[in-house]
Amino acid sequence: MTETLRPEEWLALAQNDLDAAHLLQSGGSGFHAKVCFLAQQCVERSLKGVLVSFSEEPPYIHDLKRLMELVGEAGGTVPADIAEAEFLTPYAAQLRYATREERSPIEPERGLHLAEATLQWAREAVRY
């Protein structure tokens, strides 16, 4: 069995995703969907870090809304403005698995803003 990452390890992974997203965004057009994918990963990993801080095993899912619900069930509170990040959920599958499902609107600036806000909130919410 694989050992669960500690909260700070989840948040370090989230920071790495955010840094990579900013780097791609600064490179100009052509990478907007990948920026949204990395923003989704940042939010997902931030939420999983918070879950682990509540002694919860993070599930192997990419559904941000469900992860936010699990944080609430564990005793945390996800701010309403961060809950908007659930719009990034489809990017987890669309780019990873090249699905044919309808694509979400590509909004890299919004995705980056929400990823930054979520990571900042997670750093404050993590219980050590």
Describe this structure in words.
By secondary structure, this protein is an all-alpha fold. The chain has a single domain, classed as Nucleotidyltransferases  domain 2 (Four Helix Bundle (Hemerythrin (Met), subunit A)). It is built from 6 helices and no strands. The protein has helices spanning 7-26, 32-53, 64-74, 80-83, 89-94, 108-125. Helix 1 packs antiparallel against helix 2 (32-53). The longest helix has 22 residues, at 32-53. It is globular and about 40 Å long.
CATH architecture: Up-down Bundle
The secondary-structure element order is: HHHHHH
Helix content range: 55-70%
Q: What is the CATH topology? A: Four Helix Bundle (Hemerythrin (Met), subunit A)
> Span between N and C termini?
23 Å
Mean pLDDT: 90
Q: Please compute the radius of gyration using only Cα atoms.
A: 14 Å
User: What is the name of the CATH class?
Assistant: Mainly Alpha
Q: Give the strand tally.
A: 0
Strand content: under 5%
Shape call: globular
Give the low-confidence spans: none
The main pleated sheet reads as: none
Name given to the CATH homologous superfamily: Nucleotidyltransferases  domain 2
Q: Helical region count? A: 6
Domains, number: 1
Q: Which structural class is indicated by helix and strand composition?
A: mainly alpha
